[in-house]
Structures are given as structure tokens and as C-alpha cells.
Write a structure and sequence with these properties.
Elements (H helix, E strand, L loop, with lengths): L1 E5 L2 E6 L5 E7 L5 E2 L7 E5 L5 E4 L22 H8 L4
Antiparallel strand pairs: 1-4, 1-6, 2-3, 2-5
Amino acid sequence: MLVLLRGSGELLRFDADGGIASRAGLGAEAPVAQIPVGVWHGFWVREPGTAILEVKPGPYRPSEFAEWAPAEGDARVADYLRQLAPQP
């Protein structure tokens, strides 16, 4: 479950290959989203000061990353983030 505490953004849900399966806006009018277990997801922040709370079943695993996502520090990260950005 993702709970928007302040600000706004978009919940991104990914398909098995890392493509965006869906986008859902979170804001004051819709601050909570349920995410099925096992669904890769991310959050795109729309405004400074945005804060979210994510609640998920344990156990906590600190480095849980999808195989299709570029690793932190990888040269492909900037291009990947541009692909995730909301389109005007």
C-alpha cells in the first residue's frame, strides 16, 4: 500500500519486461493506492516536498531491485528516468 502524506505524484506499475503497464495519479483527492504483492512499481514525484509512506509485508530486504532496471550509478540511469517521466 502506498499512502501520499503530502504533495503529488504518479504510481508507476511495470510489466514483466520493465515497461510501464499503468500510471495512477496520487494527490489530495486520491492519496492511497493498493499494489498487489509481486508487482514491480515506482513513484514519480510531481512537486517538491512530496512525501509517501509504503507499507508492505516482510521480511525487509534492503536491496530488492528488478533485473531489468539499471543499477545505481549505471550510465543508463538518466535515459531510463527520462523514459519514465510523465509526458506533457
